[in-house]
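sry for the spam today, last one i promise. C-alpha cells for design, 263 residues
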C-alpha cells in the first residue's frame, strides 16, 4: 500500500533545502544530534538559547533527518537592537517558533544539491530562495554531519514573509509534509516519512493557536498515538491519518465529511 502525495487539491509547498557550516567535522560529530553540535559551538549560543525558548529542543533531537540553516551569534546580533531579547520573552514564543522553523526542513540536503535548487519550503510552510545564497544570507560553511541530519551555517537570520491566517499556514505545512513524506514512505523509508509528518504537526501545534478545534485535536491525537508506536510504518500511518483529518477540518465542514480511505 502506498501513500497518495496530495490531499486531492493543489499542493502549496515543496520540501527541498539549504546550505551553510563546517567547523572541524570529525567522526564523533556523526553521533551527536543537531542540538548537541550547536550547543557545543560557541558561535551558536544565541541560536541554542532561542531553540530552548521556543521549546524545539526535543523536536530537533528527534530521529530526523533534518537540514538546518544555522545563523551565528553575529547574525542574531545584526538584527535591530532589542529584537533578540524581545523574541526570547515567553509572550513572543509563537513568533520565535515561526522564525526558527523557517530555518528547518525535514530531510537531508547536502550543499552539493543546492545549485540545482531555486527555493526550499521550510517547516513553517513558507518557501525561501535557495542557491548560492539562502534568502538574503550568505552560506559561510556547509555539510556539518549530525546523527539526525545536516547543518549549514549562514550569516543572517532568515525572517519569514508575512503569511495568511492560521488555517492557511497550517494547510500549507500539511501539504508540504505530504509532498515530502509520501515519496519517502513509498520508497521504503517509513521512519523518515514519519519524521516529516511529526515535525510538521509539532510546528503547527506549537504556534498556530487559532486553528479550528477539530484540527488541533486531530494532530494532538496523532502525535500521541505515534509516540506509543515502535513500528515506523505504523507511526507514519498514524501521522498521515492525523494530517488528513486536520486538513479536512481546515477545509471546512463539507470536506470534513469526506472519506479518509484514500491511500
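last one done:
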Amino acid at each position: 500500500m502506498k501513500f497518495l502525495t496530495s490531499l486531492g487539491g493543489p499542493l502549496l509547498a515543496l520540501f527541498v533545502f539549504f546550505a551553510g557550516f563546517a567547523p572541524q567535522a570529525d567522526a564523533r560529530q556523526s553521533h551527536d544530534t543537531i542540538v548537541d553540535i550547536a550547543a557545543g559551538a560557541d558561535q551558536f549560543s544565541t541560536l541554542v538559547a532561542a531553540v530552548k525558548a521556543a521549546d524545539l529542543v526535543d523536536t530537533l533531537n528527534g530521529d530526523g533527518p533534518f537540514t538546518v540553516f544555522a545563523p551565528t551569534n553575529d547574525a542574531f546580533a545584526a538584527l535591530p537592537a532589542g529584537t533578540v531579547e524581545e523574541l526570547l520573552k515567553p509572550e513572543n514564543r509563537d513568533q520565535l517558533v515561526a522564525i526558527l522553523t523557517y530555518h528547518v526542513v525535514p530531510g537531508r540536503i547536502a550543499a552539493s544539491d543546492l545549485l540545482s535548487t531555486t527555493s526550499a519550503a521550510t517547516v513553517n510552510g513558507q518557501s525561501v530562495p535557495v542557491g548560492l545564497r539562502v534568502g538574503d544570507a550568505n552560506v559561510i560553511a556547509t555539510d556539518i554531519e549530525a546523527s539526525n541530519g545536516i547543518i549549514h551555517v549562514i550569516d543572517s537570520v532568515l525572517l519569514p514573509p508575512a503569511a495568511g491566517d492560521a488555517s492557511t499556514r497550517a494547510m500549507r505545512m500539511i501539504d508540504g509534509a505530504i509532498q515530502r513524506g509520501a515519496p519517502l514512505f513509498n520508497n521504503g523509508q517509513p521512519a523518515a516519512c514519519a519524521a516529516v509528518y511529526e515535525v510538521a504537526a509539532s510546528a503547527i501545534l506549537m504556534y498556530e493557536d487559532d486553528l479550528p478545534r477539530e484540527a488541533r485535536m486531530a494532530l494532538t491525537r496523532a502525535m500521541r498515538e505515534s509516540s506509543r508506536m515502535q513500528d515506523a510504518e505504523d507511526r507514519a500511518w498514524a501521522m498521515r491519518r492525523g494530517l488528513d483529518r486536520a486538513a479536512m477540518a481546515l477545509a471546512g465542514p463539507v470536506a470534513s465529511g469526506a472519506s479518509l480511505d484514500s491511500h
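DSSP finds eleven helices and seven strands in the chain. ok im logging off now
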